[in-house]
Amino acid sequence: MRTGLEQELLSPAQLAGELGVPVQTVYQWNYNGGGPVRLRVGRHARYRRADVDAWLVSCTVPTGTAA
Length: 67
What we know:
The chain is of the alpha+beta class and 67 residues long. It has helices at residues 12-19, 23-32, 49-58; strands at residues 9-10, 39-41, 44-48. It has a 3-stranded antiparallel sheet with strand order 1-3-2. Strand 2 and strand 3 form a beta hairpin. The protein starts with 8 loop residues before the first strand and ends in a 9-residue tail after the last helix.
């Protein structure tokens, strides 16, 4: 497991590509306070892989339940 500065950081465009959503959706999450936890590196938003994975787990809806 990576720790500290060794963690992989994703840009909004990389995150959007991996999730298959428009990059504008990622920017809307940032503006509205949704989506995975983000870091500010200077003026740039970055996402830790572990935070993205944790967020995806929190979005899981069990089979047979309403979304």
